[in-house]
Design brief:
- With 546 residues, the chain is an alpha/beta fold.
- It folds into 2 domains: 318 residues, 3-Layer(aba) Sandwich (Aminopeptidase), CATH 3.40.630.10; 203 residues, Glucose Oxidase, domain 1, CATH 3.50.30.30.
- Helices cover 32% and strands 23% of the residues.
- The chain contains 16 helices and 22 strands.
- The strands form 4 sheets. The protein has a 15-stranded mixed β-sheet that branches. Strands 20-19-22 form a 3-stranded mixed β-sheet. A two-stranded antiparallel ribbon has the order 7-8.
- β19, α12 and β20 form a beta-alpha-beta unit.
- α2 packs across α10 and α4 runs parallel beside α10.
- The radius of gyration is 23 Å and the shape is globular.
- The N terminus is likely disordered.
């Protein structure tokens, strides 16, 4: 009900006219969308990993496409913004040893665990580190929750559950928003908090349901070269190793400690939970190769006519996982849906906006790097903006287009957060679609793509998608398509371009994104976050006096 009311109120806000569907249809090129998606996801681009030949080919191709469609270089005459990264690659396949319990355990790399270090140093050693189970690893004083209360984890290895304590709720009410994942449920937060607490290492217990992805995604994402943002301390403030355990390996670990994982999981979901020492010691060691390099964001601009110093932003990440398997016939993670499709959408939208003629405000098209490594490219832009964030009106992020054909519904990730809902409402109504609640709020998608980097700095951003209620097959068909993609293709070699894709849904998404961007760029309004939203205060501070 809250979602419906939020959109109803949003529909009354603003007075700008949304571009017609026929206008958007005439401007957006399906040929461009298909051609660029196919090119970027071909084997020639080697999975588009930052810092590789695949990156060079990708950013050069995007610069050519931006120039072709009529954009200007967006960074003081350059198409590129350098993003300083350090690439850390684990050498070999270390084993994670557990001692001190009912039996000694030896966990195999990839099969039982994965791990990586944010520390840019040639050798990592964790030796005889005491294990402590800290539930969901959350310290949230504003919610009256602290899993670290009463325990000193300095020098210890913390074992943590994925997601939030109330992730399995039926609705969206609860200490951590019920089924809707908060940032506290994301692995990025859990590693950050463990480092703040002084932990030596972190092991997150994988479970496909609360994680919203299978072990194959973890394995492909956390093995091979890992890019991170360069920091003055070379990552010394971070834990020595951040890792994951398979659910089976975790059960063996807890059994060796004389504990039951299911019982402790239930206990960890209750207020007042206290950390449980496991009386085990963990050891792991590995060498690392270190390479420092500048990856690149690609940025183009369509200058505004009357207010060129006000900016509307489109973002999409160009990167993927590169060579994601050490063995096998197909080793390349091509990332066709994720996110060659979204990057191609950026090109197609830039082309459409240029064809329609310049808007009053400037439109910025930003293809960012290293999203798959923790939103690094967008985070760097947000910290080092080419265009002042206080003068950035708002924007849209595009991460994976819909390839299952047309649908009857549309949804926003993080609906009800900002006044941009009004623009989405009008654009969706122009397509005769129904706005529905986010279908998988427990997956935490709001915190998993590049709009989040801008939102944290106060810029209102939309992240929205075509829904699962397909014109052909209904909700069952849409859910089945998504489940198959997650299980078999997401972050794996099978995410390849398919000439048999039905592009009707993707084109509908682009029409909506086009209309939202065009209305924003021809408006005088400055949409804000709604009262009480966590990003409202920073936006108010940045806009003060302007």
């Amino acid at each position: 009900m809250r979602l419906i009311l939020a959109f109803a109120a949003a529909a009354l806000a603003g007075c700008a006219t949304t571009a017609s569907t026929s206008d958007a249809t005439s401007q957006i090129s399906l040929e461009t969308l298909q051609r660029v998606t196919q090119e970027l996801s071909s084997d020639a681009f080697q999975g588009r990993a930052p810092g590789t030949e695949g990156e060079t080919r990708t950013v050069e191709a995007l610069a050519r496409e931006f120039a072709r469609v009529g954009l200007q270089p967006g960074n003081n005459g350059s198409w590129y913004q350098d993003v300083p990264l350090v690439e850390i690659t684990m050498q070999g396949s270390p084993r994670l040893q557990m001692t001190g319990g009912r039996e000694n355990l030896s966990f195999a790399y990839r099969t039982d665990f994965v791990g990586a270090s944010y520390r840019a140093q040639p050798r990592i050693d964790v030796r005889d580190s005491e294990l402590v189970f800290v539930g969901y690893g959350i310290n949230a004083p504003e919610r009256g929750w602290n899993d670290y209360e009463g325990v000193d984890v300095r020098g210890r290895t913390v074992v943590i559950l994925v997601n939030d304590p109330d992730w399995n709720a039926s609705g969206l009410e609860g200490t951590f928003n019920g089924r809707a994942m908060t940032y506290y449920g994301r692995w990025t937060y859990k590693y950050e908090e463990a480092a703040r607490q002084g932990g030596a290492a972190v092991l997150i217990v994988h479970d496909s349901a609360p994680a919203s992805y299978g072990w194959n995604v973890v394995e492909n994402s956390w093995t091979g070269p890992q890019p991170y943002m360069q920091t003055p301390d070379n990552g010394a403030s971070q834990t020595a190793m951040n890792g994951w355990l398979t659910n089976d390996a975790a059960r063996r670990l807890f059994a060796a400690a004389g504990q039951d994982l299911d019982a402790l999981t239930r206990a960890a979901a209750q207020p007042g939970f206290r950390a449980v020492p496991l009386n085990l010691r963990a050891s792991v060691g590995f060498d690392q190769s270190i390479r420092r390099f500048a990856s690149r964001n690609v940025v183009g601009v369509l200058r505004g006519t009357s207010r060129p110093d006000e900016y509307v932003l489109y973002t999409a990440h160009w990167d993927h996982l590169g060579i994601c398997r050490e063995e096998g016939e197909d080793r390349i993670c091509n990332g066709a849906v994720d996110n060659a499709s979204g990057t191609a959408a950026l090109v197609a939208l830039a082309e459409a906006q240029a064809r329609a003629g310049r808007t009053e405000r400037s439109q910025v098209f930003l293809a960012v790097t290293a999203e798959e490594s923790g939103l690094l490219g967008s985070a760097y832009y947000a910290a080092n903006p080419i265009y002042p964030l206080a003068q950035t009106v708002g924007g849209l992020n595009i991460d994976s287009l819909t390839m299952h054909g047309d649908a009857r519904d549309f949804y926003a990730v993080g609906a009800g957060k900002s006044e941009l809902d009004a623009y989405l409402q009008r654009a969706v109504a122009a397509e005769s679609l129904t706005l529905t609640p986010e279908p998988a709020p427990q997956a935490g998608y709001y915190y998993r793509s590049d709009h989040f980097s801008l939102a944290k700095q106060g810029v209102p951003m939309i992240y929205a998608k075509l829904g699962p209620d397909l014109v052909v097959g209904g909700r069952a068909a849409g859910d089945a398509w998504s489940a198959e993609y997650r299980a078999n293709r997401y972050h794996g070699p099978a995410d390849e371009y398919d000439p048999n894709w039905d592009w009707a849904g993707a084109m509908r998404e682009l029409r909506i994104f086009y209309n939202i961007g065009r209305e924003l760029a021809n408006s005088t309004a400055w949409p804000n976050w709604n009262e009480g939203d966590e990003f409202r205060a920073i936006r108010d501070r940045s806009r003060a006096g302007r």
